C-alpha cells in the first residue's frame, strides 16, 4: 500500500541510479480536499470494495493474510501521509509518471492528480477499469500505460 510512496522518497534522494519513476496509486502526500481512506477496522470485504474496480473478482481469501496494519501504522502513523512530502516533491527534476486507477477508493483520482501537480513536469494517466491495485486488477492496461510514456 505504500510502495509508490517509497519510490517517491527514493527519487528524492538524488541518486544517479534513479533516472525517473512510475508512481502507481501512491500515497504519502497531504492533499487538501482529497482524503485518504481510513482502512483501520475495515473488514476484508470493505477493504476490497475500496481497493478494486470489480471487488467481486477478488473475493477475500481467508488463507491469505491482509495488509499488516501494525507495520503500516509503524511506517505511516496510519495517516498514510507525510506533511512534508508534497513540498519536497517540488524539487524533483526527473521524469515522473503518476498512474491512477479511476475506481481507487483508498485515495481517489483527485488525490492522484494532486500528486502529479506536486511534481514539476509529471505526467498523469488514469486507468478507467482499475482501483488502487492496477498491477493486480488490470496489469495489461498498466503496462500499456507505462509503455505509452516512452
Can you name the CATH architecture? 3-Layer(aba) Sandwich
| Unreliable spans | none
Shape: globular
Number of structural units classed as domains: 1
Q: Can you give the mean pLDDT?
A: 89
CATH homology group: Alpha/Beta hydrolase fold, catalytic domain
* Radius of gyration (Å): 15 Å
* Order of neighbouring strands in the sheet with most strands: 1-2-3
Major sheet characteristics: 3 strands, parallel
**How many separate helices?**
7
Q: What structural category characterises the helix and strand content?
A: alpha/beta
The protein's oligomeric status is: single chain
- Proportion in helices: 25-40%
CATH class annotation: Alpha Beta
Gist?
The protein has helices spanning 3-12, 44-51, 69-76, 85-89, 109-117, 134-137, 139-147, and strands at residues 21-24, 96-101, 123-127. By secondary structure, it is of the alpha/beta class.
Describe this structure in words.
With 150 residues, this protein is of the alpha/beta class. It has one domain (3-147): Alpha/Beta hydrolase fold, catalytic domain (Rossmann fold). Helices cover 35% and strands 10% of the residues. The protein is built from 7 helices and 3 strands. A 3-stranded parallel beta sheet has the order 1-2-3, sandwiched between helices. The radius of gyration is 15 Å and the shape is globular. It starts with a helix and ends with a helix. The mean pLDDT is 89.
Amino acid at each position: 500500500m505504500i510502495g509508490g510512496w517509497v519510490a517517491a522518497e527514493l527519487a528524492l534522494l538524488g541518486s544517479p541510479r534513479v533516472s525517473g519513476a512510475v508512481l502507481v496509486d501512491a500515497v504519502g502526500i497531504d492533499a487538501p480536499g482529497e482524503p485518504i481512506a481510513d482502512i483501520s477496522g475495515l473488514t476484508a470485504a470493505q477493504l476490497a470494495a475500496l481497493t478494486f474496480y470489480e471487488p467481486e473478482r477478488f473475493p477475500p481469501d481467508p488463507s491469505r493474510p491482509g495488509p499488516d496494519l501494525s507495520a503500516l501504522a509503524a511506517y505511516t502513523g496510519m495517516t498514510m501521509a507525510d506533511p512534508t512530502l508534497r513540498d519536497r516533491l517540488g524539487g524533483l527534476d526527473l521524469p515522473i509518471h503518476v498512474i491512477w486507477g479511476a475506481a481507487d477508493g483508498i485515495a481517489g483520482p483527485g488525490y492522484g492528480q494532486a500528486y502529479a501537480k506536486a511534481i514539476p513536469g509529471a505526467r498523469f494517466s488514469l486507468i478507467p477499469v482499475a482501483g488502487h491495485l492496477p498491477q493486480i486488477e488490470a496489469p495489461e492496461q498498466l503496462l500499456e500505460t507505462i509503455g505509452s510514456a516512452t
